[in-house]
């Protein structure tokens, strides 16, 4: 069921990614044009691209090395949406696997999902990486393994954590994509959730969507008014022009009325366009779900009027692969430069440390030097309130400022006690006289 370009093409939305790619010759060279791809084979399969894969592997390796903790951002597709908007279902549809899903909060930690197309003659592989360990699983037990890992990371209650969990899926036919699923936005804490759950979730989401390197995949339910969506409000705060936001509209089957008008009107300023989908329902297999989806958008009196280039999971997969290639090509040179800078800085720091020591006397001298330097640093931070040694380390600033304030307070205390004792003695003398 290769999607065709319909006659009433909403070129504003559909060509946006291509426009981004047009700015960058390299990325264009890597990615086959949408038309080329669409005429060949089912897009999920064809999205595999030998030239994108090594780049994606590099980015994933950097992610594993936690370079983001060093303040270096990586090009990332981040999935956001209000609770129960269908985020996990969209990821399931893309990966063809079962994730924990249902009402209430299921995704309690950032789930980094790495999908890798695998040769058809090898067995699929599934594993989880978290807290420095690797847990093998299989297709039938992924959802359960994720629940167990989530409990281990974020506790067994309903709390959330910013510590990510990585799911690696190597399977034939999946698009080569890495995406991050985030906890859904919830306004009211349910029983067992901390009072500030909204703020906690908002902070995690903002941390992921704020960097310019992130593409925001905003999942919206067809049954809601987009302009009232919390996820729209949040993504517009960090991406005012909407240039790095793509909307996926789920539950098209449930609320087909007015959907065409909603995605055409684009009241909420989605720069990368809309894709309407219908996810798996009930016990359907993924193949059945795709057939039902195709049938729905082909035959439904209202949904069939929506341009075929903006409907269906295969189209979404293809568009995401394309966007991913574009952002990687655009961001990678800058990322490499930032890593080199950081490395140079750290090597300089390392060189300041003593070299290999061969005798006790040498070791003792080095140790005394380190002690001396540490004492001097502490004296500066804690006694004199100076933080010039740590220009980028806010915690040190805070400690130094605290020392500064305590010193001021100490001075004031001294002065006021002097004033007080002068007044006391004056009072006493006036009383005495
Ligand atoms: P999340 O909280 O955003 O991750 O949402 P889930 O993926 O867990 O989905 C919430 C509920 O909506 C689940 O019961 C899904 O089965 C249902 N759902 C998701 N997508 C669709 C869809 O396209 N059509 C229908 N009918 N139900 C859907
Ligand atoms: Mg979810």
From TrEMBL:
Coiled coil: 399-426
GO molecular function, one term: GTP binding
Domain of life: Eukaryota
SMART domains reported for this sequence: DYNc
Entry annotated with the keyword Ubl conjugation: no
GO cellular component terms, A-Z: cytoplasm; membrane; microtubule
UniProtKB keywords: Coiled coil, GTP-binding, Nucleotide-binding
Start and end residues of each stretch annotated as Disordered: 1-23
Residues annotated as domain Dynamin-type G: 71-333
Keyword Ion transport in annotation: no
Name of this chain's protein: Dynamin-type G domain-containing protein
InterPro entries cross-referenced by the UniProt entry: Dynamin, Dynamin_GTPase, Dynamin_N, Dynamin_stalk, G_DYNAMIN_dom, P-loop_NTPase
Protein's organism: Corchorus olitorius
Upper lineage: Eukaryota, Viridiplantae, Streptophyta, Embryophyta, Tracheophyta
